[in-house]
Design a protein that fits this description.
The chain is of the alpha+beta class and 101 residues long. It has one domain. The strands form two sheets. It has a two-stranded antiparallel sheet with strand order 1-2. The radius of gyration is 17 Å and the shape is globular.
Length: 101
């Protein structure tokens, strides 16, 4: 629900800016990376997962690693613990938890 009053428009502008900050442009200014929200609250969302068309054909991956989040989720649902996944991919536990979220 959006309040169309002047105050509501300011709130909409802030929300839009929060979303736009999750987009990273390349050197030419073209949007190339998107860091989707992984938590319900928009503020303080980590930039751990990324969509980048140059990596894994734009599939959701862990930033700077190329590890597909779908693989992590499948393994976790199959019974692998987060600690096992962190050991297998040599990542911190917190980095593995975020994509599974």
């Amino acid at each position: 629900m959006i309040n169309a009053s002047k105050a509501g428009q300011t709130d909409l502008k802030d929300a839009l800016n929060t979303h736009l900050q999750r987009i990273e442009p390349d050197a030419t200014g073209l949007a190339i990376k998107l860091y989707p929200f992984t938590r319900s609250h928009e503020e303080d969302n980590p930039r751990i997962v990324v969509i980048d068309p140059r990596i894994a054909f734009g599939r959701l991956v862990i930033a700077d690693t190329g590890i597909a989040t779908s693989v992590l989720a499948e393994r976790h649902h199959a019974g692998d613990s987060i600690d096992d996944l962190a050991d297998d991919y040599e990542c911190d536990r917190s980095i593995i938890e975020e994509p599974i979220r």
